[in-house]
């Protein structure tokens, strides 16, 4: 099966508030569609992201780096407290390994346009092996929080897993509905992402479906003709649960029938 893959670094640069660093081999659930055009990337993980020890000197031995594992929510902000000091505009405070926090007088979009570049497989491998520069780049990427006031609609809270993690308005996926005036019927917490070479809407990043959004999720998969679904999370992580949105055999959501025709179970992933 031919699959498209994106590094989490590329996802991070497109979706600032959905960034993650994988610290262990996650479980994957892949689903194939035969007549499809686009890929859908389902991102809602809670991996352990190391936080730099601010007491560590940039010229010190990298082997002596002290890190404190924290959940991704503490990096991107949600229902828990942030553990990172946020710079004021123009701040250039050193932050471990000699890295500096991102300048706040430059918008996230400008930063991503100027900082993004295509990597060859060899370059990607080299970057992946350099934890120091990879973590430095991760922390230099501007935070990307959407103002909740932009989504001030009654009843919308049940459509979002976290109240502070919202889709960017300029690239969010809009579900087709018979009533286009009903915002709730067209809303899903998902954004289009650019592809490896900069092509528009090559991927979709979305939250792990909840009890209230399983139907919306499958509507989006059908609407966008997504051939592959990659689930980068476990069903339960740190007491957070993702709904098992695929059936054991067959199920119907929002008039869309989903049937499992085969299952391949490997050590680190499942293929359906």
UniProtKB/TrEMBL annotation:
User: Keywords, A to Z?
Assistant: Hydrolase, Protein phosphatase
GO molecular function annotations of the record? protein kinase binding; protein tyrosine phosphatase activity
Say if the entry is tagged with keyword Hydrolase.
yes
Q: Which GO terms describe its cellular component?
A: cell junction; cytosol; plasma membrane
Where do Basic and acidic residues bias regions lie? 11-20
Ranges for domain Tyrosine-protein phosphatase come to 134-272
Under Pfam families, the record lists: Y_phosphatase
An example GO biological process term is: signal transduction
Q: Where is this region: Disordered?
A: 1-29
- What are its E.C. numbers? 3.1.3.48
Gene3D superfamilies in the cross-refs: Protein tyrosine phosphatase superfamily
Output the superkingdom of the source species. Answer: Eukaryota
In Swiss-Prot or TrEMBL terms, this protein is called protein-tyrosine-phosphatase
Q: Which organism is it from?
A: Oryzias sinensis
Taxonomy of the source species: Eukaryota, Metazoa, Chordata, Craniata, Vertebrata
